[in-house]
């Protein structure tokens, strides 16, 4: 599967759904289910993210935009602490897009599921749209039914702090209401990723949370 393409589509559709006012508290399944297939399934997932993330996701219209936002926050954090940036902007822009996109998607789905808000009806609607695409179906089923743990996400990220900031930022964008379970999930994610509190605060500030 082309996870880079999938993430780009999901972010773009979530952004469009949010900025165009399609999300009013419930996913509008009928509006995109007509498309059918994997495209509709991605649309349903995007609208789920948009419903939960709202305006936060409007800032993350692409992987490059996510990387740029994360870099600017990282740079400010380093400057405020009187240290030179140890990571360049290229390191944020030139991450392995396939591997990065996969773990970012996993983090977003895990964040969406943190408060149990992915309902059985939403799962069924998404699965119904990809019933003919077994590869995507299997992956989506796995992630929705058994969301990646913060430890698993952190293992995939490894010591790549540029990727870690983007993973956290993407997950945070899905959790704008911050109910207790989401707060716990995000705190555990930041800890697992090894992100300093000050950097987390700067990421959230720059993203407008």
Automatic annotation (TrEMBL):
It comes from the Bacteria. Pfam families: DUF533. This is Tellurite resistance TerB family protein. It comes from Mannheimia pernigra. The lineage of its organism: Bacteria, Pseudomonadati, Pseudomonadota, Gammaproteobacteria, Pasteurellales.
């Amino acid at each position: 599967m082309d996870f880079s393409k999938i993430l780009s589509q999901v972010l773009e559709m979530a952004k469009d759904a949010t900025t165009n006012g399609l999300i009013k508290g419930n996913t509008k399944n009928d509006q995109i289910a007509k498309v059918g297939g994997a495209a509709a399934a991605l649309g349903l997932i995007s609208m789920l993210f948009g419903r939960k993330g709202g305006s936060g996701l409007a800032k993350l219209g692409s992987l490059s935009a996510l990387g740029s936002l994360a870099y600017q926050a990282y740079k400010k954090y380093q400057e405020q602490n009187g240290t030179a940036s140890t990571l360049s902007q290229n390191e944020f822009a030139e991450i392995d897009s396939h591997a990065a996109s996969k773990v970012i998607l996993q983090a977003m789905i895990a964040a969406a599921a943190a408060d149990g808000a992915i309902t059985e009806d939403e799962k069924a609607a998404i699965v119904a749209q990809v019933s003919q695409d077994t590869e995507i179906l299997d992956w989506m089923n796995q992630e929705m039914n058994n969301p990646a743990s913060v430890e698993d996400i952190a293992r995939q990220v490894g010591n790549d702090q540029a990727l870690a900031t983007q993973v956290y930022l993407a997950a945070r964008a899905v959790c704008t209401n911050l109910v207790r379970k989401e707060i716990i999930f995000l705190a555990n994610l930041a800890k697992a990723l090894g992100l300093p509190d000050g950097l987390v605060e700067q990421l959230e500030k720059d993203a407008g949370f």
